[in-house]
Design a protein that fits this description.
The chain is built from nine helices and no strands. With 153 residues, the chain is mainly alpha-helical.
């Protein structure tokens, strides 16, 4: 019977160098996992063996091309869910990238919510139709409507 635990899969030097290069460019561990298809422990092990300190979260002021693309797409109107799907990383990772450059904070109303609120205000669609249009629950639309009513008194 073999030893349980981590699989001692051989990773080529070329792949190791690519992982370290990407990490130094500012790509987070979660994105490296999605890009290279390795387990978190393996990516962390490779990065640490190169002499780098593994940091959690997004490094402030990171200027990787992927991060810049994410920031630009957010400014162009993509919401965090769409960004996460496009760049194959978690919404938390997207939020951290946007927060690192003060583009968003945890309490900001998302772009999608702003569009929903605009549709509620216009009165052209029912709450159910708005929910279907944006792929959210009717409760979410109703909550936003209540929020608008509170703010407008």
């Amino acid at each position: 019977m073999g030893k349980r635990g981590r699989n001692p899969m051989i990773v080529s030097d070329e792949l190791k160098n690519a992982i370290v290069r990407d990490y130094r460019r500012g790509i987070c561990i979660t994105q490296l996992i999605n890009i290279h298809g390795l387990k978190r422990w393996r990516i962390t092990e490779i990065v640490k063996s190169s002499g780098e300190t593994v940091k959690t979260g997004v490094r402030k002021g990171s200027n990787s091309l992927m991060h810049e693309s994410i920031k630009q797409d957010y400014k162009d109107g993509l919401d965090t869910t769409a960004l996460a799907q496009k760049y194959k990383c978690s919404r938390i990772c997207i939020y951290k990238i946007l927060e690192a450059d003060n583009l968003i904070n945890g309490r900001d109303i998302t772009y999608k919510s702003k569009r929903i609120m605009a549709d509620i205000k216009s009165g052209d669609l029912s709450l159910s139709e708005i929910a279907r249009r944006y792929g959210v629950s009717r409760q979410r639309v109703f909550t936003l409507k209540e929020r608008m009513e509170k703010e407008n008194g």
